[in-house]
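FAQ

Q: What does a record look like?
A: Structure on top, sequence underneath. For example:
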């Protein structure tokens, strides 16, 4: 007979679980027949003993079965999405979805909220006044037909098993686990109705995966499980040893995305890496979907659609169709400049600390139920490799009040390194897994 405690013991002792056992456990969790303490115990056993590819597949399928699954059969054109494993200042999706749509793809993008140090696309989008991130199936289908992309959050009915398990993982120290991350992400990607997916697996101080070897393992797992479930898939391993672009903070990040979409030569946003990564991911989406024959053609098309304003037009259509109104960034009232304590080269950033500073300012959440303030943020004047003089501004901080600012500045100074010797700037794309 199947019982939760026998399944927990079996995994605790390192044995392989059957499909039936996994299905029984997940459906029990979703129906609230298995209590949180037993679900947490199994998560911890998986954290330590791992899952085989077959078990990860079974977990992904059980999670997928726990809720609704979208299939946009009436939408013509290749449906392709991108999913990032999470970072700081990662605003790529907001530029990429309209850009890919402008290139002829259909992008049913389902994103998440920020949690802990990593930001979330939904929070960024919700800093646009009126922007609705909950759309019904028929509204999303209409978005794909008319605009070419839609950007939504996970509905209550979609992969409820992930909602439950993710909330438990978040408070039980079981987030950083490759099979659990794989099942969580892939179940949602299959449920959102995409046919192909490019994963942006972040590596470095601001990512869940701190080393290239861990990130490679996660990429292989994501690609393999997605493929087995019928999605075309590929992963790029990309650098998260500093925030992408210059902006960290929800409203500020939207402002930076708009600058990229408008091809603006903005005085404060140094968005070269953000634009480059967006173009590379878009090229892969185009090639994976078969719209172009190779990456070079994909890049050419993506550059053209960004340059000629088509992506900016698409973004405006997207925002309007989802009820939003584009307006200038309303910054928090207190503006402070944090300056370099000494001269040299900026050689290292603990990007997770930067994400945590944003949370302390109110721009991210510590618990799933927390709200976020779109007006706070950090605007970086310097990126890795930059020469800095003592007393030179490194970052502009937008905050609601002065509270904690001195402490946060110390925290910030402990997170960056200024050295006499210049170090090579880390590569943006570190590898590809297919
Ligand atoms: N993002 C997800 O959706 N799930 C995880 O487990 C980690 C990152």
């Amino acid at each position: 007979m199947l019982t939760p405690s026998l399944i927990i013991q079996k995994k605790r002792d390192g044995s392989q679980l059957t499909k039936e056992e996994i299905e029984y456990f997940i459906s029990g969790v979703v129906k609230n027949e298995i209590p949180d303490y037993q679900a947490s115990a199994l998560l911890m056993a998986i954290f330590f003993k791992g899952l085989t590819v077959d078990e990860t597949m079974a977990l992904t399928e059980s999670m997928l079965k726990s809720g609704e699954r979208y299939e946009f059969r009436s939408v013509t054109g290749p449906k392709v999405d991108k999913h990032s494993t999470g970072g700081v200042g990662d605003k790529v999706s907001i530029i990429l979805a309209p850009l890919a749509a402008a290139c002829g793809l259909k992008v049913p993008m389902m994103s998440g909220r920020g949690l802990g140090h990593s930001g979330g696309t939904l929070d960024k989008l919700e800093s646009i006044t009126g922007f609705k991130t909950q759309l019904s199936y028929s509204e999303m289908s209409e978005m794909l037909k008319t605009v070419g992309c839609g950007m939504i959050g996970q509905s209550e009915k979609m992969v409820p098993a992930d909602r439950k398990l993710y909330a438990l993982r978040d408070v039980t120290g079981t987030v950083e686990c490759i099979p659990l991350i794989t099942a969580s992400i892939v179940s949602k990607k299959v449920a959102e109705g995409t046919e192909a997916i490019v994963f942006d697996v972040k590596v470095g101080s601001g990512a869940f995966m701190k080393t290239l070897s861990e990130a490679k393992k996660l990429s292989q797992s994501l690609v393999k499980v997605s493929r087995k479930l019928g999605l075309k898939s590929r992963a790029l391993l990309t650098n998260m040893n500093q925030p992408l672009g210059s902006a960290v903070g929800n409203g500020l990040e939207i402002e930076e995305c708009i600058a990229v979409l408008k091809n603006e030569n903005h005085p404060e946003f140094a968005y070269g890496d953000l634009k480059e990564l967006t173009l590379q991911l878009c090229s892969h989406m185009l090639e994976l979907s078969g719209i172009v024959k190779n990456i070079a053609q994909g890049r050419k098309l993506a550059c053209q659609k960004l340059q000629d304003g088509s992506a900016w037009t698409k973004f405006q259509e997207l925002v309007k169709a989802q009820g939003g109104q584009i307006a200038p960034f309303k910054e928090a009232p207190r503006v402070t400049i944090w300056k370099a304590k000494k001269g040299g080269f900026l050689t290292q950033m603990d990007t997770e600390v930067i994400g945590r500073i944003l949370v302390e300012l109110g721009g991210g959440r510590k618990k799933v139920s927390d709200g976020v303030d779109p007006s706070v943020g950090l605007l970086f004047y310097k990126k890795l490799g930059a020469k800095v003089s003592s007393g030179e501004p490194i970052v502009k901080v937008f905050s609601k009040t002065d509270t904690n600012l001195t402490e946060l500045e110390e925290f910030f100074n402990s997170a960056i390194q200024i050295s006499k010797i210049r170090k090579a700037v880390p590569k943006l794309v570190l590898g590809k897994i297919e």
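Q: Is there anything notable about this one?
A: The CA atoms of residues 215 and 301 lie 29 Å apart.
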